[in-house]
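Subject: sequence -> structure tokens, single chain

Hey, anyone have a minute? Need the predicted structure for the following. Not urgent.
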Amino acid sequence: MKIKSVVIDTLTGLMEQEYAEAGRRKMIDRVKWKDWALDVAHLVDFLRNEGFVCVLVVGYPGSGKSYGIKTLPEGSNVWYNCDKKNPTWQGGKAVYGSINTPTKFHVLPKSYDDIMNHVKVLKSKDVFDAEPIAFLIGHIEDFKTKDGQIRQKFKTLGSLTNKLDIEAKMTEVLYSEVIMDDNDTRKYLFRTAAQPTDSCRSSEGMFPTEYISNDFRVIIESINNY
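Reply:
Had a minute. Here:
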């Protein structure tokens, strides 16, 4: 079986690792003023140059972003576990192992270079599908605009006034949400269309409804059929 997808989980965790390392090395200016989104943009550009379709999935912690990995067929996905958490979905350890005993489909990167170098090795072995997909998971943050509106965006680190707008580089940006239904049951969903306060988006007609299940296989099938 060819590898159809990679999941980078999370970009936020990767930024925090580099942020902490810069702080440990007392690189104060770098910690405070660097636009850490530049590294994310470089990763996105790299993946696109390697033939990946990139999908950004963002949301608050605990809103079901990583759960989308669960339905991906065994052997079809590489999980870049930047947060270094054990799988939180049933059956996850059987496929990916644990952080102490990861399988070959489970990588614990310490930097962007670790991910890019690993992808290059896999590309050299011709193990990827002809049209691979990269799921880039991140957290969101609330911010206030100049006119006092509260909006949401992909969370990046640093103190620069004008941070790079990662969402603007993407055609598919899905927001994870937890919704209570009429029976007071939690439903974990991905939203596919924008609201006035965020940058959620997807290609016209790619998804049949505004909300879809938090299932990466559904997204892959939608992209394949578009």
